[in-house]
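Support reply, case 0932

Customer input (verbatim):
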Amino acid sequence: MIAWQELLAALALVLVFEGIMPFVNPGGLRRMLAVIDGLTDRQLRMFGVVSMAAGLTLLYFVKQ
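Our regenerated output:
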């Protein structure tokens, strides 16, 4: 059974965290996006897989 309330709460937190950077430092966000634009596809994929692994590890420990 999917816990919809928890899933929606997690999505809401993602949106809050994603909105912090453009709200606090829009110029820094633009510079960061320019750097990201210069990365290769392989570098972006590696960043993505490392981020997912870190998130899954954190989730595992939080749910223990």
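We compared this against your earlier run and they match. Two observations from our side: The mean pLDDT is 94. The chain has three helices and no strands. Please reopen the case if you see a mismatch on your end.
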